[in-house]
Amino acid sequence: MIACVKSSPPRPGVSVFLTVRNEAAHLEQAVDRIFGQAYPGPLEVVMAVGPSDDDTAAVAGRLAERYPALRTVPNPSGRTPQGLNLAWRAATHEYLIRVDGHSLLPAGYIERAVELLESTGAANVGGLMVPEGTRPFQRAVARAMSSPFGIGAESFHTGGRAGPAKSVYLGSFRRRDLEEVGGFNEDFARAQDWELNHRLIAAGKLVWFDPRLGVVYRPRGTWASLGRQFYATGRWRWRVIKAYPGTASARYLAPPLVTLAVAAGLATGLFGMARRSGSLAAVLALPGLYAAGVTAAAGLAAKGLDRRTRAWLPVVMATMHMAWGAGFLRAIGEGWSPGQPSRPS
């Protein structure tokens, strides 16, 4: 008698999509991780390639030659939401998994994401951003981005239990749900993932967080690039609040309020000194109080770090807060409204 072996049901096809610009340093490793998943079903990668200042286009071309299941599409604007829409709309499968050109998928990520889409019925499932640095400054940024003292207590930064969420890192989608809500909002050069999840939830759909879906992220490696990143993030957070006033929260308002208080304290103290009615102590009162608070917070978050990384941590946290706050305050006076063109992100 021949034994009957019960075969596993075929797994659904998956399209991994991403948009890239200035990602030559990390793109090859990111794509190798995707094709190293050993997903037991049809798998393709669709990459929208924007105009870059480095060799991103050449790297993408070499990867397309190496992997027949990788296709590239041009993203002439270079903008993130436009590129994401171009990529997922060019894909062929129902399940769509977003990655970045500098994100590193862990083994089994795609299969676990598909299982969660099927078991939860969610329109989007995602998990943790896991920042990892290779040098002391990067390691400090990574620790700050994983701490509620650095970037806030969102579950996709700091972790938590699996369950419904307002937003997740990257995300895995059903095509029909993206089509129903119109995909990524091309008015938002930043925060387009949060904005998409907001519309999915408003449409009665489920966004699901699972901490097992952790993806390695390479944080900014210089003080200047970190400042630019968080300045832009602060500007776009104001624009999100302007488009969706009900989303304002203490987490988003704290950095601009702290930045305003520190700047006002400095200005008031310096004005008093100029009129010979103030003192250096008055100038430094609020900035000093803030510096003491950041130093204490960094001390609490620095467990297990080496000496050089610990030294960078309060500087990194202050840069995140002040740059975010300055960008937020700058945006208030810009008069932006949804529908206006955005610069590349």
Could you describe the 3D structure shown?
- By secondary structure, the protein is α/β, with parallel strands linked by helices.
- The chain folds into two domains: 14-220, Spore Coat Polysaccharide Biosynthesis Protein SpsA, Chain A (Alpha-Beta Complex), CATH 3.90.550; 238-332, no CATH class.
- 49% of the residues lie in helices and 13% in strands.
- Helix 9 runs parallel beside helix 12 and helix 10 (250-274) crosses helix 12 (307-332).
- It is globular.
Sequence of secondary-structure elements: EHEHEHEEHEEHHEEHHEEHHHH
- Summed over residues and divided by their number, the pLDDT gives a mean of 87
Assigned CATH architecture of the largest domain: Alpha-Beta Complex
Number of helices, counting only DSSP H or I runs of 4 residues or more: 12
Give the C-alpha Rg: 22 Å
Under CATH, the homologous superfamily of the largest domain reads: Spore Coat Polysaccharide Biosynthesis Protein SpsA, Chain A
Give the helix/strand class: alpha/beta
What's the main sheet like? 8 strands, mixed
How many domains, as an integer?
2
CATH topology type of the largest domain: Spore Coat Polysaccharide Biosynthesis Protein SpsA, Chain A
Q: Which bin fits the share of residues in helices?
A: 40-55%
- Name the shape in a single word: globular
- What is the C-level CATH assignment of the largest domain? Alpha Beta
Count the beta strands.
11
**In percent, how much strand structure appears in the residues?**
5-15%
Q: Give the uncertain stretches in residue-range form.
A: 1-6
Question: N- to C-terminal separation?
Answer: 64 Å
